[in-house]
UniProtKB/TrEMBL annotation:
Source taxon at top rank: Bacteria
Family, as annotated: Belongs to the FAD-binding oxidoreductase/transferase type 4 family.
Transmembrane segments: none
GO molecular function terms listed in the Swiss-Prot or TrEMBL record: FAD binding; oxidoreductase activity
Lineage: Bacteria, Pseudomonadati, Pseudomonadota, Gammaproteobacteria, Lysobacterales
Protein's UniProt name: FAD-binding oxidoreductase
């Protein structure tokens, strides 16, 4: 460790774990985007809030930028360290701290993986209902940083709805305790919600208090094959009116192609342009009758071509893997990912326009659509053609994303639904936020991080 700045940090915090090996720099310096070459100064793995505070104060004194790091499962470049930043990984801060049975809250360190949080809640007879496929890798601190949503937003909402309190180290090293798990608190601005979706640019989340809830009723899972997206929206309306939906997810035949190529079984006879995975409450004969009636109605209307209802937990897991395995099945491919949202009511018109846009601008590209219909969130993965150079591919994707951003603006949508802005979506922020909003965001950043050391260059440029 020859850098004098790191020597001073190590001297100030002799118990701090610091990594400078080339493999560690590469591993911790990137997220799932893989578009930037990682080049961090070092990796700091603090074990306490006090060490995080000391690191931030050191960074202020030395003029070193910090990239807060959780599970690094993001897809917008929000956790990339490519310009000599110190990566501040919360990986070691992963413990359960307190459970309150009366308030139904659980306080954990920010580095706890989501899967571990689910297990901790279950041990107390309750559930933390926010869930997504990367649960084994992502951390609750990262979920807060992007306001992650996932597969059950239709029933439970995004991460934001379940955050009762936060402890955050601000850009000057001061510790802020936000909301203290109060249900009602009108004592000024709610800085807790300001930190949610801030992507580590306003503070380092070190502790999270989440609200828990009762376990859901027994559920069933069905898979449907559909002819058109318009039919998909009709099915959503029908099932939502007749059933208690826990989840309603869709994917295209191209998404299914990649998951089946990755080892999944072909689920239905024939090929269908669109597929839906729906999960619904099943508390007895009335629910059974309702789902069969809804299915028969949808088939009769020509909205559904084929379908199956899981008869066991194993079958349900196989159906869910068709949706949750999409990202993993495509991980080996060079690709560019869009994560957009519109109001559910605007989705048919937006999708018709954007599909036409992609067919026109990407005639030879493999474009994979999937997402969360119940909350208006669409994921679009564009696969790089083998013969195309990476730089040319990224340039082409940036050009088309600018057109997509303009389409979203016309439909009142957002260029980022749940993955954040980071580096990837930064050029398109103005399609979602106007000049006054961005100016206000810059002012907030200046107030909480006066020297601009926290994740600089992400969301917007200083």
């Amino acid at each position: 460790m020859t850098d004098p700045r790191l020597q001073r940090l190590a001297a100030a915090l002799p118990g701090l774990r610091l990594l400078t090996d080339a493999n560690d720099l590469e591993h911790y310096g990137r997220d799932w985007t893989r578009h930037w070459t990682p080049a961090p100064l070092a990796i700091a793995l603090p074990g306490s809030v006090e060490e995080v505070q000391a690191i931030v104060r050191w960074a202020n004194d030395e003029g070193v930028a910090i990239v807060p790091s959780g599970g690094r499962t993001g897809l917008s470049g929000g956790a990339v360290a490519a310009n000599g930043e110190l990566v501040l990984s919360l990986q070691r801060m992963n413990r359960e701290l307190a459970f309150d049975a009366t308030d139904r809250t659980l306080t954990v360190q920010a580095g706890m993986p989501l899967q571990a949080l689910h297990e901790a809640a279950k041990a107390h007879g309750l559930v933390y209902p926010v869930d997504f496929a990367s649960r084994g890798s992502c951390s609750i601190g990262g979920n807060v940083a992007t306001n992650a949503g996932g597969i059950r937003v239709i029933r439970y909402g995004n991460t934001r709805e379940w955050i009762a309190g936060l402890k955050v180290v601000a850009g000057n090293g001061e510790l802020m305790e936000l909301n203290r798990a109060l249900v009602k608190n009108s004592s000024g601005y709610d800085l807790r919600h300001l930190m949610v979706a801030s992507e580590g640019t306003l503070g380092v989340v070190v502790e999270v208090t989440v609200r828990l809830t009762s376990p859901p009723p027994p559920t069933r899972t069905m898979l449907l094959g559909l002819p058109t997206f318009d039919a998909l929206m009709q099915v959503f309306a029908e099932l939502r009116s007749r059933l208690r939906l826990e989840a309603f997810e869709f994917f295209t035949d191209r998404a299914l192609h990649h998951v089946v190529a990755h080892g999944a079984s072909q689920p239905l006879d024939g090929r269908h342009p669109y597929y839906v995975v729906a999960e619904f409450a099943d508390q007895g004969e009335a629910d059974e009758v309702a789902v069969l009636s809804a299915f028969e109605h949808c088939v009769g209307q020509g909205w559904v071509d084929d379908g199956v209802i899981a008869q066991s937990e194993a079958q349900a897991a196989q159906i869910w893997w068709l949706r949750e395995g999409i990202t993993e099945s495509m991980a080996h491919l060079a690709s560019y990912k869009n994560d957009v949202s519109v109001r559910v009511s605007a989705m048919p018109a937006f999708l018709a326009e954007s599909i036409a846009l992609f067919e026109r601008e990407y005639p030879e590209f493999d474009v994979v659509w999937f997402g969360h219909i119940g909350d208006g969130n669409l994921h679009i993965t564009i696969v790089k053609p083998e013969a195309m150079a990476k730089d040319a591919f990224m340039t082409e994707c940036a050009r088309v994303t600018e057109l997509l951003a303009a389409t979203l603006q016309r439909h009142g949508g957002s260029i980022s639904a749940e993955h954040g802005i980071g580096l990837v979506k930064k050029p398109y922020l103005s399609s979602t936020r106007n000049v006054a909003e961005i100016a206000a965001m810059r002012g907030i950043k200046q107030a909480l991080d006066p020297k601009g050391i926290l994740n600089p260059g992400k969301v917007f440029d200083a």
